[in-house]
Amino acid sequence: MIVQRIKKFIFYQKLKTFLERYEPFLMPVTLIAGTTLDAVTFRSIRIDTSFLILGVYLVIVGTAIVFMNIDEKHILSQKGRVFPYLRLMTPLVFQFLIGNLLSASLVFYWFGGAISASWPILLVITLFMISNEVFRRAFRRPVVQMSLYFFILFSIASLFFPYVFNSIDAKIFIAGGVVSLLVFIVFTNILSRFLDQIKRAQLPIAISVLSIFVAMNALYFLNVIPPIPLSLREAGVYHSVERISGGYRLREEPESWINRILPGQVLHIQQGERVYVYSSIFAPADLNTTIVHHWEFYDETKHAWIDKDYLSFAMSGGRNAGYRGYSLKSSVAPGKWRVSVETARGQVLGRVWFDVESVATRSSLQEIIK
User: Fold this and answer.
1) With contact defined as beta carbons under 8 Å apart, do 101 and 57 qualify?
2) CA distances from 115 to 32, 120, 321 (A)
3) pLDDT digit string (tens) for 44-63?
4) CB 223 within 8 A of CB 346
5) Comparison of pLDDT for 292 and 110, the residue scoring more
6) Per residue in 69-99, pLDDT tens?
């Protein structure tokens, strides 16, 4: 019996040493693995199933927080053979599921769209890898664990509530935030009764979480946070847009593949010719709202963007390829232009940037069907 305990202790210490030695490598790998798994799975399953999976992830992450804050001596004193090893593996599980949860919004709405929408999560992953030593130590602190958990809880709620209520109204965002805060308060109070580390950190946790709550709401009403779950799948400027059976016929100037991947576009137009902006937007089924194309012209003398038009149209959700619509403008002056695709309350989904040049004659156009 004593020999078995000694062997068990020696194996445990070896595993612990291995994980501590390779933790700087394992942490970013598990984070990226979690993000990659989202990219593979959530794009091919139903939305309600996706939310069920995310709910399970949230429960497991909450359990991981419990394990990471239980005293190690107490874990080793357990008679069962599983608990000590669960404690060792918990940080990696935590990191893996954090990758899943942070990338959920990206996979649901932005993965198939413009790179300009997906760069924040790529930046987060890069920062995790570059600053891994800092994050590795930070994840051991209850304040960081609980704050990150609340941020994710808030983020998932902001995805879930619009689907449930088929609305992007500000009240829905507020309701999601309040519910996530109440759930978190109950969770923290329960943990503080059993975990001394959580109990001692209650005040800094409360300050951090309330700061996140206020900051998220402030960013939302300043229109910095996009109107989840709407997502701009595609947008561009064209010489003409014509609705046909089953889609749209668009006419554009031929471009090289290099010009297509570079930001901005040059549009050569003749006098009196119209300019069209086409956009495709993803929205959940049964969600009805208004989309605005906000046209602006850059005044070189004032060095400022000048409002020119707010052209709106109603849209309905539920189409996998996105709801398609367009706006047009006549008498477009030469110079720099941009068209913001917005909601009725001014939340920006994306922008189309282009330069207009006036020409007497132009080359032939090519047609595409979307």
Assistant:
1) yes
2) 18, 10, 17
3) 556 677 788 888 889 988 88
4) yes
5) 292
6) 876 555 544 555 666 666 666 777 777 777 6
The CA distance from 136 to 28, in Å, is 10
Query: In the chain, what are the domain boundaries?
Result: 2-221, 231-369
Tokens of 280: 């495709």
Q: What share of the chain is helix, strand, coil (3-state, %, to 5)?
A: 55, 25, 25
Contact 333, 297 (CB under 8 A): yes
DSSP codes, 295-312: EEEEETTTTEEEEEEEEE
> Which pair of structure tokens corresponds to residue 193?
């009764």
SS3 label, residue 200: helix
Q: How far is the C-alpha of 363 from the C-alpha of 252, rounded, in Å?
A: 10
Picking from 70, 215, 69, the residue whose alpha carbon sits closest to that of residue 146 is 69
Per the CB < 8 A criterion, the answer to whether 284 and 229 are in contact is yes
pLDDT of residue 158 exceeding 90, the answer is no
Please, which residues have CB within 8 angstroms of residue 339's CB and are 6 or more apart in sequence?
Answer: 235, 237, 277, 293, 294, 295, 296, 327, 351, 352
Tokens 């999601």 correspond to what residue?
Answer: 176
Kindly report, residue by residue over 168-217, the tens digit of the pLDDT. Answer: 888 998 999 999 999 999 999 999 988 888 888 999 999 999 998 998 88
Q: How far apart are CA 47 and CA 361, in angstroms?
A: 50
**Contact 240/327 with Cβ under 8 angstroms?**
no
CB 31 within 8 A of CB 98: yes
Which among 193, 191, 156, 202 has a CA at the least distance from the CA of 177?
156
- Residue pair 132/66 in contact by the 8 Å Cβ criterion: no
Query: 322 with 233: CB under 8 angstroms?
Result: yes
Angle at 223 between CA 218 and CA 227, to 5 degrees: 110
Given a cut of 50, whether residue 118 has pLDDT beyond it is no
Structure confidence by residue, pLDDT tens digits, 296-331: 999 999 999 999 999 998 887 666 656 888 999 988
Which pLDDT does position 166 carry in this prediction?
A: 80
Q: Is 231-369 assigned to CATH 2.60.40.1930?
A: yes
pLDDT over 50 at 132, yes or no: no
Strands 266-269 and 348-358, by their bridges, are parallel
The vertex-27 CA angle with 142 and 181, nearest 5°, equals 35
